[in-house]
Fold:
Amino acid sequence: MALPLLKNGMFNRLQEDILALQGFRTPAGARKIDFGLGVMDTSFPNHTFPTGAVHEFISNNPESAAATTGFMAALLGKLMGEYGICLWIGIRPIVFATALKAFGVEPHRVIFIDLSKEKDVIWAVEEALKCESLAAVVGELREITFTESRRLQLAVEQSRVTGFLHRCNPRAVNTLACVSRWQITPMASQLEEGMPGVGYPCWRVQLQKIRNGEPGEWEMQWASGKFEYLPKEAAETPPAYLRQTG
Structure:
């Protein structure tokens, strides 16, 4: 019985229907985005980074916040493509716009909205996520309730816009309706022996939860416009200049 079921594709269609009911729906004719995440894709439902969903990122210090911004920008570069527009909403947004070019994001296609109250940030993010003409929305905030996050998720299930919530120094990491929770921390760049300068951005990427997927942890860098995984020995061994200075 199982073999004919698989041959007819009924099992795959049933799985797709279940994922669609849980917010993982791809509209007909939509452009499939290759984020270049490689082995990380196996952690996601449908083996692809969930778009048309809201993702939560947690940062506990300025260094982690900078690393998180870099990782989000690398994802945004793929989401926005050549013509997409992104809204970046927060209270004194921490991003340095010119640096976005290093991650494939043209700064003139990012609209920064600087608000004075966090409750206004949540409202603006929700309204922005309803706009189907946007590629993505980034919201920088500290606190958000489950009910507020549920409204955001319902908005993207209609518009298919992808949302990133960057929570800097939250008082508590509470349960939200977001499909995933990430924590990005910086790692020392790997320099070639005897070469001066600053290496590529390196991160320890923790996918702490993912709906209908498998959490995981990876060491990676952003090099020449793409994600690259660090060999285990490279991630564990400090570069030469750190070994020399202790």
Remarks:
- The first strand starts at residue 54 and ends at 59.
- Residues 62-80 form the longest helix (19 residues).
- The chain has a mean pLDDT of 85.
- Helices lie at 2-7, 10-21, 62-80, 118-129, 146-159, 232-236, 240-245.
